[in-house]
Amino acid sequence: MTSTVxxxxxxxYKHLDKGYEFQVVAYDETDGVVEIxxxxxxxxxxxxNDWYQMKLEQIEPPEDWSGPVxxxxxxxxxxxxxxxxxDDWNExxxxxxxxxxRNDHD
Length: 106
Known about the structure:
Blueprint: E1 12-15, E2 21-28, E3 33-38, E4 43-47, H1 48-53, E5 56-59, H2 86-105
Antiparallel strand pairs: 1-2, 1-5, 2-3, 3-4
C-alpha cells in the first residue's frame, strides 16, 4: 500500500510500519526531495517517490515538539511547563500561611 498523504512543510507524520514520528522540514517539489527530521534530531532526505511508498498518517505535533530542535527561543514554545492555575500555585502557600497565623496567635 502506498501513501496518499502529501508532504506539508512543518507538518508531523507517523510512519505506520515502523512507528516513528517525524516532521517535514523542507520540501522541494521541483527536485522531488522531502527532508524530514526525526524526533531524535536526525535529518533525512527522501526522494518524493520514496515518500509515497511509505505508509504514513499526518499527526498532531508531539506535546514536546521541541525535542529535535536545537535552536529556538523559549517564547516560541506554545505551551507552558505546567498546567497549574494561580490557585494551584498558591494552594500550599495558603495552607502554610494559615498554620503560621494560628501558631503566631498561640
